[in-house]
Design goal:
By secondary structure, this protein is an all-beta fold. It is 1% helix and 48% strand. The chain is built from one helix and 28 strands. A four-stranded antiparallel beta sheet has the order 1-2-3-4, with no helix packed on it. A four-stranded antiparallel beta sheet has the order 5-6-7-8, with no helix packed on it. It has a four-stranded antiparallel beta sheet with strand order 9-10-11-12, with no helix packed on it. The longest helix has 4 residues.
Length: 360
């Protein structure tokens, strides 16, 4: 890793802009839900009623992600364009409980926390012909970064995703069109780089998939979608098990309209499905399953949002979906049984918005 130290200068806020819900995260054991918003506020909500529980402010630039710790679920992490990662104690209001900084010139546009809570990683925007993956020991707030990878991407690093079970496995995506997979147990950056997958366009999101996390879903800013099987790395078989350069060109799936955009994906452990969420100009939300045979429509969520959906999170325990959008709304969706589909699994039932709140 490249070694460096320093602290960032603050960057400007976004006064006067409409409030977008940028990202959502669920408490791993409790009843809280966190939403990062474009007005620089981190809002804590009850995950069942969506009523306000708390609010945190401190970032001076737009946030690029939010996640709860698993072993220490009282800690909520957020990263920002202001060049900081902050940990908030959800048991009490006030300033951030922990602060992680890097070089003053760095602006973050992605971050994640390893599955054992030990390692933080943030991806930077391109600066002075360099984009970095910066690492910290999460148990040492205020300490200098452990180091950084600087050679694997040549543009903004838009996604950082740790493997859900392997604390040393990391995937990163960039506007350079590449998705890299690293084994952090290895020494140098070059040795740690296991493979590079070509997304053929700017990467918007990356998601680990399959029961053992052996597949990787990539969604592009041009609404392309690719599903790679990393078990094929040492074979002659192609990595891609499904690829669509632009889902807007697909024929509408039975029961739904054509897709206008993709939000992202999530592996649903209990259902054993890779869920892909997309939407259309009518503000309908489409839930799809993705596998080697392509996309299959599971449900259409109507009557909720009035603008583009920016983020979602699947609540496995309650079989519910939370979505946030450019209409400054958080919605909680639950499937409702109908006479003609009583025997269908939950994802294939008619979904209705059960709770709906406007962010102010």
């Amino acid at each position: 890793m490249k070694k460096f130290a320093g602290c960032p200068a603050p960057c400007g806020g976004v006064p006067g802009e409409p409030i977008y819900v940028l990202d959502v995260a669920l408490h791993p054991a409790g009843d809280a839900l966190a939403a990062s918003c474009s007005d620089l506020a981190l809002r804590l909500r009850d995950r069942v009623t969506l009523r306000p529980v708390g609010e945190y402010r401190g970032h001076s630039g737009r946030m690029c992600g939010v996640t709860f710790a698993r072993a220490r679920p009282n800690l909520l992490y957020s990263a920002s364009e202001d060049g900081t990662v902050r940990a908030w104690d959800v048991r009490r209001p006030g300033a951030a409980a922990q602060l992680f900084r890097a070089d003053p010139t760095h602006s973050f546009c992605s971050f994640d926390l390893s599955c054992d809570d030990s390692l933080l990683c943030a991806g930077t925007s391109m600066n002075d012909e360099e984009s970095l993956l910066v690492f910290w020991d999460s148990r040492k707030p205020g300490a200098a970064p452990l180091g950084a990878y600087s050679e694997s991407h040549s543009d903004d690093i838009t996604q950082v995703r740790f493997h859900p079970r392997d604390k040393d496995r990391l995937a990163s995506g960039s506007t350079d069109g590449l998705v890299n997979v690293f084994d952090l147990r290895r020494g140098t950056e070059e040795e740690a780089l296991l493979c590079t997958c070509n997304g053929d366009s700017s990467v918007a999101s990356v998601c680990w998939a399959a029961a053992d996390g052996s597949r990787l879903l990539c969604v592009g800013h041009d609404e392309g979608l690719r599903l790679w099987d990393l078990r094929r790395l040492d074979t002659e078989r192609p990595l891609a098990v499904f690829s669509c350069p632009d889902v807007r060109g697909l024929e509408p799936m039975p029961g739904g309209r054509g897709l206008d955009y993709l939000v992202g994906g999530a592996w649903l452990e209990a259902a054993g499905k890779l869920l892909v969420v997309g939407g259309d100009k009518a503000a309908d939300v489409q839930l799809m399953e993705c596998d080697g045979d392509g996309l299959r429509l599971l449900a259409v969520l109507r009557g909720g949002h009035a603008a583009t959906v920016r983020c979602f999170v699947w609540d496995e325990a309650r079989e519910a979906l939370v979505t946030g959008g450019e209409d400054a709304q958080l919605l909680l969706w639950k499937p409702g049984r109908e006479e003609d589909n009583d025997n269908s699994p939950g994802l294939e039932l008619k979904w209705k918005p059960r709770e709906k709140v406007q962010i102010h």
